[in-house]
Amino acid sequence: MALCLSDSETSMLTSPLLVDSWASTFNDLRQRGKFCDVVIKVQDIRYPVHRLVLCACSDYFSALFDGGWGSGEKQEIELSGISPEIMTSLLNYAYTGQVIITSQNVEELLPAADKFLVDYVKQKCCAFLKKQLTPLNCIGIRQYARSFFCPKLVEAAHNFILYNFEEVIQKSPEYLMMNFNDVHQLISDDRLNVRLEETVCEAVFRWIRHDKMGRISNLCVLLKGVRMGLLDPEYFMTKLKGNFLESMGECRGLIKDAMKVVCDLHAYDNNTISPHGNLFSALIRPRLPFEILFAIGGWSGGSPTNAIEAYDPRAESWLNASTIPVADIPRAYHGVAFVKGFVYVIGGFDGVNYFNTVRRFNVATFEWVEEPQMLHKRCYISVAVLHNKIYALGGMNGSDRLNSAESYDPVHKIWTILPDMNESRSDSSATSLNGRVYIAGGFNGQECLFTAEFYDPGTSVWTRITPMRSRRSGVSIVSFHSMVYAVGGFDGVNRLRHAEAYCPRTNTWRNIASMNKPRSNFGIEVIDDQLLVVGGYNGHQTSWDVEAYDDTANEWYEIKDMHICRSALSCCVMSGVPYDVIKRYCVPRDPTSSSRDTLDGATSSINAEDAVLSERSGITTDDEEDQVLHQPEALRAEHDLEDSDVDEMDESESNL
Question: Where are stretches of biased composition, namely Polar residues (predicted)?
Fold first, then answer.
């Protein structure tokens, strides 16, 4: 009987079981010494093997058995420069596809894999060493990787040195042994991660002093890589001006130019320096940041805004990054989170609607997409990130304050309901520390709260902690140097300047220095080892000002203002992304860069800008007042329009 089949139909059958069976069979034959056609000798150990198997995993053995080096017909081949233990590992890989890499064998295994052209094992050794990078060994690993042409490991080690430079020069004796070219490459790199340029200058001096006679001739070249215009004037005058350096011909001109820049910078307001002017001078060009802070959305000019600004901490400048696409509704009293290259904007309020929607922004492609919605609508939401999961806590759904909580898995795109908190709270704030999610303050419908609690994902239990010293609605909290900081807010009577810090070890709060200005419903984040508070409401008007907290000195100082006055905004920090992405959110360092290299350039237009021009001067016009009178009661108190107890409870939440 003939089957009527199409002549054009074909099918490819792949059997992974058969491939696995071959590997298992060949390994069994090797162990039993069956059908082996060559012996590999290493020291006094002989390994009967199959030429075909070794050729399949190594071009070295293919050439060797094909007659290269006169070994084609030999029945026994002796190999040098490898130990029996490492040879055993490579043969096990050839027959099973498995290799065990440890801290004890990797330093010998990688050169052997390189010599015998076992590329996969070499790649895995490089990946293993990349995970082992520390400030103590990174310089040595970089040099080791260069020796065996491992460019990706060289790059990873170099980037590690750049990012951890301050710790590397303190802990690694190998820094002092580096050659001039390597030191010069580091010192000159815009990506060098230092908060103070004095650190770079001291690193140069230390390297020179280690071999002064042999290295002093390199000093002036290295100092050209130091941004001397950014040095503290007192440090400059003490360490450079009047020093023996000035007597060195090449250094004399360099120091003279730098002194002029230092004097000019501190004689005038730094804000007068244009990114198209002195910023491009090699003496004053800021290093590139490793992180960028985003200020997103909020309440501005009498309505919600979709404006985004990006803060470059090394240039101490804000850029108008880009507006959220027109299709997206501006929102305030929302939450944001940054997870693995994406900004998530969660919940909030547009003046009419309460949202459970989630929008995701790809910082590399500038694309917005909708993510799965939360299980509950949440305005005045508290958001935290722990172990790459997003926690959405409390808030208000338009009628009720919530004690519910949920978490989002960005990988599987699933929201999961969590156990309820111990009490309902909206207009609170959340952060994560040591594997826990903390939430503090807020408003329960009757009073501003001073209570706080944490959630442990391991036990799925909420646990109360010692209450704060002050009631705080519209508060912002953040983890910083193993403490939880609660800053500002509204206590039912006044907007607050004061702040406090919680120690999980002792379960106690302590007062810290007060901010320079009172504020509630503001953004808070930690960037470049600084705690920043951004914008907010001071009881009379929204604000564009920004302050930073130095926990070592226990003091606050003002930094560059945002371009837009706003409260009810939310902030997050972008980190762990490639430099070509970071640079698009920075003030351009290269004078040839155009504004197209950033998101919209330093002068991008923002939808909300016209609406806040009068607010920047601290004036509310009659027209704006009329507009505010027609806003939902939820937001009227931002302009203090009513004197009732309810309206006084909070610029934001307590009016709901």
Answer: 591-607
The token duo for 404 is 């519910």
Q: Is the residue at 147 inside a domain?
A: no
Structural contact between residues 606 and 323, judged by C-beta atoms closer than 8 angstroms: yes
444 token code pair? 């329960």
How far apart are the C-alpha atoms of 474 and 536, rounded to whole Å?
Answer: 9
Structural tokens at position 474: 């519209």
Give the integer Cα–Cα distance in Å for 562 and 457: 36
Distances (CA, A) of 385 to 312, 388, 410, 419: 22, 6, 11, 17
Q: How far apart are CA 494 and CA 539, in angstroms?
A: 8
Distance, in Å, from the CA atom of 605 to the CA atom of 601, rounded to the nearest integer, reads 9
The one-letter amino acid code at 459 reads T
What value, to the nearest 5°, has the Cα angle with vertex 644 and ends 643 and 645? 120
- Sequence letter at residue 259: M
CA angle 162, 164, 167 (to 5 degrees): 130
Tell me the residue length of the chain: 656
- Please state the three-class secondary structure of 359-404 as a single string: EEEECCCCEEEEECCCCCCCECCEEEEECCEEEEECCECCCCECCC
Residues 310, 258 share a domain: no
**Structural domain span for residue 89:** 22-132
State the amino acid at position 513 in one-letter form. Answer: A
CA dist., res. 207 & res. 214, Å (int) = 11
- Residue-wise pLDDT for 179-201, tens only, equals 999 999 999 999 999 989 999 99
The CA distance from 92 to 78, in Å, is 18
H helix runs in 567-655, sequence order? 579-582, 613-616, 622-629, 645-648
Tell whether 454 is covered by a domain: no
Would you call 497 helix, strand, or coil by DSSP? coil
Asked if the structure places residue 81 within a domain, the reply is yes
Two structure tokens written together for 76: 């026994």
Looking at the structure, tell me whether residues 268 and 347 fall in a common domain: no
Report the chain's C-alpha Rg in angstroms. 31
Q: Both 105 and 34 in a single domain? A: yes
Report residue 178 CA to chain centroid gap.
29
CATH of the domain at 242: 1.25.40.420
Assess whether 304 and 381 both reside in one domain: yes
CB-based burial label for 326 (10 Å; 0-12, 13-18, 19+): exposed
